[in-house]
Every structure is written in C-alpha cells, then in structure tokens.
Description:
Blueprint: H1 2-10, H2 19-30, H3 35-43, H4 49-59, H5 69-77, H6 84-98, H7 100-109, H8 113-122, H9 136-149, H10 155-169, H11 176-186, H12 190-201, H13 207-220, H14 224-235, H15 242-251, H16 255-265, H17 293-301, H18 313-323, H19 328-339, H20 344-357, H21 362-369, H22 379-389, H23 397-405, H24 417-449
Amino acid sequence: xxxxxxxxxxxxxxxxxxxxxxxxxxxxxxxxxxxxxxxxxxxxxxxxxxxxxxxxxxxxxxxxxxxxxxxxxxxxxxxxxxxxxxxxxxxxxxxxxxxxxxxxxxxxxxxxxxxxxxxxxxxxxxxxxxxxxxxxxxxxxxxxxxxxxxxxxxxxxxxxxxxxxxxxxxxxxxxxxxxxxxxxxxxxxxxxxxxxxxxxxxxxxxxxxxxxxxxxxxxxxxxxxxxxxxxxxxxxxxxxxxxxxxxxxxxxxxxxxxxxxxxxxxxxxxxxxxxxxxxxxxxxxxxxxxxxxxxxxxxxxxxxxxxxxxxxxxxxxxxxxxxxxxxxxxxxxxxxxxxxxxxxxxxxxxxxxxxxxxxxxxxxxxxxxxxxxxxxxxxxxxxxxxxxxxxxxxxxxxxxxxxxxxxxxxxxxxxxxxxxxxxxxxxxxxxxxxxxxxxxxxxxxxxxxx
Length: 450
C-alpha cells in the first residue's frame, strides 16, 4: 500500500480527477473490507494531522448503504483529536458510517462545540428535543430545521428564535446567512427576507450574516438585487468583508440592478461579476457573408442528406433562400437539421425552415421552439430564432412573457451559484430581445391594417 500512503501524504488522493483518488474511490465502493479501506482506517490514527484529515475525508467517500462499524469506530476515536479539522471530519464520518443513533449518542455526551455543531448539522430532522440546547449553533440548526417544515402560523416564534441565536451561532457554524436564506427562499418569503437583510446589515455584529442572506436572495429572486444592492453598498463600510464582497458581486450579476444602481456600485472597491460578451454566441447571419448561392450549394453538396450539425447554417441556407427556392436535397438537409433533435441547431434552423415552407409552417415550428425557451443551455438560441421569425412568432409571446415574468430564477446547472444566476440573466435578456423584435416586426402590419 505504498502508493496509497504516498498519495495520502501528498494530498493527491483528495485531489479531484487524480488517478490515485479514482483508484481509492473505486476500491472503497468495491469492497469495504479490502486493503485500501483497511489502510485508510489505520491512517486515521496517524501521528500527522494532515494524514488523519485526508484519511477521514477519503473514508467518507465510501458508499454507505448500511452501517460501517469499523469506520464509525475510527471516527469516534477522533472526535477528541487535538486538530479541529480532524474533529470536523470525524464528526461528519460518525453520522455517515454509524448512522443516526450513533450520532445522537455522541452529541448527547460530548461538550466540544465544534464537534457538536457538525454532528447537529449532519443529524437534521432528528434534533427537535434540543431546542433548548446550551450551544447557540445547535439551537440555530434545530430551529432552522423546524422552520423548513413549519406552517405559516409558527413562523413568528421561530423567526425570533433564529434571530436571537444567529450572532452567537456564527462562532461555530459556517454559512449562517446562506443556510437561513435557503430555508426562507424555499418558503417564498421574499418580503420577509428583504426586511431581515436590512435589520442584519444595520448591526455590525450581524452584517456578514445579512450579506450571506442577501446573496442567497439574489441567487433565488430576480428582483432581490435591485432592492438589496443599495443596502449592501450603504452598510459595507470602508473595509469590505469577504462576505460583503461576495454579496455585492452576486448583486452585480443583475442587469436590472446595475441599470438602476450602477453608479452606486462604482463607489465600492468590488469588481463586478465578469459578464461574457456572448455567452451563447450569435446564431444570426453575419453581415457581409462570404457565401453566395453557388458557394452555399457547393458546400451542401458535400454534406450528407441526414446531416445533424452544420456550421454557418444561417449564412448557407440564407444565401440559397435569397436566390430562390431550395432544391429537394437542400430542403431535406434543412428538414433534418430542424426536426431531428432539439438543441442549438434546431433553434438556428427552425426560422430558416419557416422561410422555406412559408407561414403555414409557423405552428409546427413554434411547437418545436417554445418548450425549450427556459432550457439553460439552449434556450437563448430558441429565443433568438423567435426574434428572427418576427411577426410569425406572435403566438409565442405568452411563452416568452411567462419566462420574463418569473420572480424566481430559472433552475440551471453551472459550477457556481453566480454562474447559474448569470445563465438566468442571459435567458431573460434573450427573451426580452425576442419579444421586442416580434412586436416591432408586427407593428407596421398592425398600423397598416388599422
């Protein structure tokens, strides 16, 4: 097991995608009684604190479908470790490997606040009997879990209990603000969150909690940055704390907030969230296209009829449609690009099919496009396609308006919460642009018919 000892000692075994980490995870999942798990259990007793931390982290990666007494025993032995980070990891593993009952017993007999806080965090839903616990962080977690499932009639007393313990809870509990925010956002209490942020920010002792709560609100509600950005700027002080800087950066993702308060934001030493110039790229024909109809026809002749992707499709088919109708083969290629599968290419090519087939094809084309407007990875391409369809996309306005009128962010998947918020902002901007283009194209016809 020399390779394992070296990988743990160097930190490679806990480095994402490192070969040694992959080997350890595979071994843990294959057999909890194998040589790798056994060696990690031994390393959890190492004289070197770093090695103990790494070993406990790796043991926590095992898929524990049933209790793992050996790992639970190793973790219990480390709950009184002199190293705080070892104690934290051990408390996590106690519940994971030993289960609820083992964790509750440890919580009942131990007094060290860091360990008790981690145990309480891992034992959510099992702590109702600890509402009067002597440790504020434990009480906060208990009341927070109660608030998560409480009816509205029970919110006021729970709100008061959380507010009373929040400041002291931060001594041993990380992320008090965002934890609180997640529960309140899940309950849809937008106005309450704004009022609570204002109260927490006004007190220097709870300012970072308020910043964390504000950041969670900005991640959840589209209107939150507009209302909360001025409060954050007002209370950030001459020295901007890391929590406040993160909240301000998150608020700056909002285009509406920056339009309303950009000058105010410029007064604080915080860099706004980097806004990509073209997050989804452009799917509209480029000005001064190098393709004429002859060149475009030659390109398409070299492509199969069942083509699924085609770079510069708007320019190629646009040049051909400008010159006249498509040939049967060209129309078949465009049909396959449009109707075979959802994705960027469909959003790009659907308006081209409408040009080829005429207004009668609009209902079928719109039926392809509107279900994907809120897809975080391809929705903007569909919105851009609707914009190019102009007045023919008028029946899609309710779908665009529904996306625009959402109060909460569209659920998306990105590596960071700020990145997810930016994706929602980009989809929102694309929807606004599409609606404007459709109405602008429809306006002359309405004026003429009037």
